[in-house]
Every structure is written in structure tokens, then in C-alpha cells.
Design brief:
The protein is α+β, with helices and mostly antiparallel strands. It has 3 helices and 6 strands; from the N terminus they run E-E-E-E-E-H-H-H-E. Helices cover 20% and strands 27% of the residues. It has a 4-stranded antiparallel beta sheet. A two-stranded antiparallel ribbon has the order 1-4. Helix 1 (79-87) crosses helix 2 (89-99).
């Protein structure tokens, strides 16, 4: 976050599964760039393996620059929150409603908004959010 309040450029970076989303005008927008291969491109090789063929290496480094507007909420999150936000319209609507009020929620309301919704839904809910003034 820049020290200059007039600078709206935000730089996000991460590694592994997860996502970057923007809440604007009551709806979520996936800010991850879409990468499509040309029709004549060779097939993508399998994920690189760790030495000895053990587990796959982590996903490549991600880097994204986003311009925030007043009232936006910018959310960088792990897979445990990105999955439901992308694939569960009820969860996405509930989170959008909870976070569409002016200013950030207090800590208890923030944690309540990202809580698992049911039995067996206990994935990590790592999240960093920026409420644009």
C-alpha cells in the first residue's frame, strides 16, 4: 500500500492456489488474468515434479497490479476462500452483502463472514482485504 492517499495502485503477489477478487457495486470480479493457449499450441506439459518424483512443486509466482476505486474491496485469498467465492453463488452474495457497507468490518464480523458454512467445510480461509476509502 502506498503512503500517498491519492495513489490507487495496489500490487498483489502470491504463490500457490487462491485468487484475487474485487468487490465493486455489490458484485465480485475475479482479477486473475485468464490465460488461453492458441489452438495450434502444443499440449501443456505436466506439472514439474520435485526431486525423486515426490510431490509436485508449488504453483508459479503470481503478480498482479490493480487500480482500486473508492468503495472497492480488494481481496487476496487462499484456495479455501477462492473456491467458494468462485463456485458458490450464495456464499459470494452473502460475503458481498456483508462487505458492501462503507468501511471494513470489525475483526469479529470479518471472521464471521469467511467462516465455513457447513460440516466438512473446514478448509483454510486465509484472506487479506483492502477497503478503498
Amino acid at each position: 500500500m502506498p503512503a500517498d492517499p491519492d495513489c490507487r495502485t495496489r500490487v498483489f503477489f502470491g504463490v500457490g492456489a487462491g485468487g484475487l477478487f474485487r468487490l465493486r457495486d455489490g458484485g465480485w470480479e475475479d482479477m486473475e488474468p485468464t490465460v488461453t493457449a492458441p489452438a495450434d499450441a502444443p499440449p501443456t506439459p505436466p506439472a514439474p515434479q520435485a526431486p525423486g518424483g515426490a510431490a509436485p512443486r508449488p504453483a508459479p509466482f503470481r503478480f498482479r497490479v490493480v487500480t482500486g476505486c473508492p468503495g472497492d474491496v480488494l481481496l487476496l485469498c487462499g484456495a479455501g476462500l477462492a473456491g467458494p467465492l468462485s463456485g458458490d453463488p450464495d456464499f459470494a452474495a452473502r460475503l458481498a452483502a456483508a462487505w458492501s457497507v462503507p468501511g471494513p468490518p470489525d475483526l469479529a464480523d470479518f471472521l464471521t463472514a469467511v467462516q465455513p458454512r457447513g460440516a466438512g467445510d473446514n478448509e483454510d480461509r486465509t484472506a487479506v482485504a483492502v477497503w478503498e476509502p
